Amino acid sequence: MTERRVVVTGIGTINPLGNNVEEYFSNLEKGVSGAAPITHFNAEKFKTKFACEVKNYDPSQFFDRKEVRKYDLFTQYALVSAAQAVEDSGLDLETVDKEQVGVIWSSGIGGLKSFFDECLGYAEGGMTPRFSPFFIPRMIADIAAGFISMKYGFMGPNYCTVSACASSNHGMIAAFDAIRYGKADVMVAGGSEAAVNEPSVGGFNSMQALSTRNDDPEHASRPFDKDRDGFVVGEGAGALILEEYEHAKARGAKIYCEILGGGASADAYHFTAPHPEGKGAIKAMRDALKDAGITADEIDYVNVHGTSTPAGDLPELKAVAEVLGDHVYDVNISSTKSMTGHLLGAAGAVEALACIFAITHGVVPPTINCENLDPAIDPRLNLTLGTAQKRDVKCALSNTFGFGGHNSTVIFRKL
After folding, report:
1. Active site residues
2. Calpha distance 158→89 (Å, rounded)
């Protein structure tokens, strides 16, 4: 089978740094922190009282009352970002073959808030089973993919990938495969998460996974810093329109970049901790390079998973160094989670957009908040600390890893 080339022709996002791509890219370059005290609920009794929330979001700007009742927040974010991407792509919805357009959407958790609210209502209602008819479809993780397809009539491959924080990279790889192997001409790919809520923050607190730097939220997400104390939970969505290259050319589409390949692996080690030597991450990156048909020395930028956890940052940098060899000293590395926080299942999609920003703008977004580099980290690495750096980025590699030992890597290239 002859593999077809796949390009990115549309992008959209709503995340802690901006409610559209322009705002997001601007704040990425400026090194803005999206962290602030939690407003979604009263966090007074929680160990962590801050998060990276979406700012100035009003669902009534996008949905009527009936739709708001049907959609969990993670689905709302999905629909908002997907709408931006579809519009940006310039697809003619009247003439495109909708049987050849699919949706693979990702979420690590799905409608957690809807689940929590219904269970709370059941308990407060004297255990009388008065559940909303929207409860199940609001909660299930696949529903965002379904609603996107219904909105536009897209009848191609349609499902959800769930692999914790690796979810949307896995989804992009699946969408990429659907196009290159001829199962679709266009795919909407991305991920969304709305996990700034009581069970999420409380659960991650109980695992001691979240930062508790409540007196200084803006500087709490600090990958590679010796004083990092956990990740900052974020929310939002990122969407990409992937399209077969000849199909995009034929309609005169704007092309951001090409998606070259992807790799996936398991640590097979621990249910939350990464392998200390990064063995699974090494395999995912090497498989992605093989799939892309390029060598390690062609990579210019690595957007690392980089969550700002004591256990996670070091193994990943070891893995990157193992895969890239001496070339690792010639690449830019950064963790944009230092700005956005950790969007869990949406992280890969939002960070893919950061890679596209680097490719299209010639600017590598920074790692902010690293004031005292962990002495265990090789100081020769260019971690793009503090400020963005100009660079002609031809190839960018993006990692996302998830609880359960899931690893996923995607590679993008300037066309």
Report:
1. 165, 305, 342
2. 19
